[in-house]
Automatic annotation (TrEMBL):
Gene3D superfamilies: MTH938-like. Signal peptide: none annotated. It comes from Pelagibacterium lentulum. This is Membrane protein. InterPro entries: MTH938-like_sf, NDUFAF3/AAMDC. PANTHER family: NADH DEHYDROGENASE [UBIQUINONE] 1 ALPHA SUBCOMPLEX ASSEMBLY FACTOR 3 (PTHR21192:SF2), NUCLEAR PROTEIN E3-3 (PTHR21192). It holds the Pfam family DUF498.
Amino acid sequence: MVEHWEAGKGHYPYQVAIDAYGSGGFRFAEMSHRGSVLCLPGGMYAWDVTEAAGVTLESLMRVLEASDIDVLLIGMGNDIVALDPEIRAAFRDKGIIVEAVSTGSAVRTYNVLMNERRAVAAALIAVEKAR
C-alpha cells in the first residue's frame, strides 16, 4: 500500500505497528521509510529530527496537539538522553506520560501498547543498527 505514503509529505493516514527499524529508518505497513517518524492516532508522519538534541517542544508540537494520547514514547537514538523538563511539563499539563528511552526500546514498547489498544504515540529517531 505504498500509495498511501504521500510523496513529499511523509504521511501514512493510519497508526500502525513498526515491523522493523535500523539502517536509518523504519518498516511499517509494507513500506520502508528512511528517517525518523512520529506515530500518532492520526497516522504516521516523517519527522525531521536526526539526533537527541533535536527533540524539542517545537519538534514535538504535532504530538502535543494530537488528541487521545495517554503515553508518548520518545526513541532518543541508541542511547538514553535526559529530556528537557519543559517538554515533560507541557505533556504532563495535558495528562500525557512521557518516556524517553532508546529507539529500540521505544519501538518494542510502542508495538506492545498498540497491540493492547492503548492510546500511545511515539517519536522515533532513526538509527543505523537495531539493538
